[in-house]
Amino acid sequence: PKSIVEQKTETEKRGINQVLLKQTVLEPIEKRIDVHLKEPYSIGPYNEIREGKQWIRLTEGYCPHKCIWCGEKTVKEPKTYPIPTIGANDVSLLDMNLLSAPSAHDIITSLGKIRYNGKLVYYHLLCGFDYRLLTKEFAEEIKASHFQYPKLAWDRNIDQAPRIKKSIKLLEGVGYKRKDILVFILANHPFVSYQEAVNKAFCLAVQGVQIDPCIFDKQIKRPWKPIGWTVEEIDEFQRITRKINMIVRFGGIDPEAF
Q1: Which DSSP helix (H) or strand (E) runs through 100?
Q2: Ramachandran sector of residue 117 (left: φ over 0; alpha: ψ -120 to 50; beta: rest)
Q3: Beta-carbon neighbour count of residue 59 at 10 Å?
Q4: Who is most buried in 34, 100, 144, 162, counting CB within 10 A?
C-alpha cells in the first residue's frame, strides 16, 4: 500500500476535483444525502366528501423513482383501487404518481365519463403529473377527462429543464393555457439547493407558467422547520415564486407596481 505522502502527492498531481468526482460519480445522490421523510404520509384507499368537494386515491406504489423526499417510497406493495362513487363535481386525486400505474390510461378515461347531478366532473391531481412519463396520448386524455390546472412535478435538478419545457408544450398543445399550468419545485431539501431552485423558478417564469413550492417535509406555512435550507432562504423563495405567479396570472404585469 502507498504511504500517506505518496497518496498526497498523487492527489496533487491528479487534482482534488478529479479525486472527489471519482469518489461520488458512481454513487446516486440519494445514498449520499441522509434526509428522509419524517412526517407520515397517508397511504391506502381514500374517499372523503366535504363542503361540495371530494378527495380520492386510486393508485399507489407504482412510481419507479423511489425518491427519498416522496411518500410514495413508503408504500411496500403497488395497489390499484376501484373508482368510488363520485359525489361531487370537484374531485381531487391524491395519487402520488398516477401515470406510472399500469391502468393509468383506463383510469383517466373512465373518470372523464363520469357525471354528477347531470354535470361534468372536474379533476385535480394534487401531486402532479410525472413529466418523465407524460406523453401526447396522456396529455390528450387528461384534457378530455376534464383535469384542471395540471401540475408537473419538477423535484429533480435543473438539467431536467428541457424535459419540463417539452411537457409544458405537450399540455399547451392539447388546449391548456400556460398560465393555468403549475410546476412543483422541491424546496428545503439538500438535493436541490436554494440557488438551483431559484434558477429553476426563473426558467419557468420566462415560459409563463406558475410555480408551486413544495416545502420539504410536508410544510405548508410558517414557522418553517429548516432541513436543507435556512428559514431565510425558504421565505425568500416563497416571495420570489409568489411574485412570479402574480406576474404570470396578470399577463406579464406586476399589479403591485402600481
Answers
A1: none
A2: left
A3: 24
A4: 100
What are the backbone angles phi and psi of residue 46, rounded to the nearest 5°?
Answer: -145, 135
- The 8-class DSSP code of residue 192 comes to B
Q: Phi/psi at 239 (nearest 5 deg)?
A: -65, -45
Q: Hey, what's the cell of 37? A: 421523510
Better-predicted residue by pLDDT, 183 or 155: 183
Structure confidence at residue 41 (pLDDT): 67
Share of the chain above pLDDT 90, in %: 71
Backbone dihedral angles phi then psi of residue 213, each to the nearest 5 degrees? -65, 130
pLDDT, one tens digit per residue, over 169-188 is 999 999 999 999 999 999 99
The Cα–Cα gap between 143 and 180 comes to: 12
Nearest one of 65, 69, 98, 66 to 81, comparing CA atoms: 98
45-54 average pLDDT score: 96
Alpha-carbon span 227 to 231, nearest angstrom: 9
| Whole-number average pLDDT of the chain | 87
Q: Taking a C-beta distance cutoff of 8 angstroms, is the pair 209, 188 a contact? A: no
For CA atoms 197, 247, 153, 175, give the dihedral sign. Answer: negative
* Polymer length of the chain: 258
Determine if the peptide bond prior to 150 is cis (ω within 30°).
no
- Cβ neighbourhood burial of 15 (10 Å; 0-12, 13-18, 19+): exposed
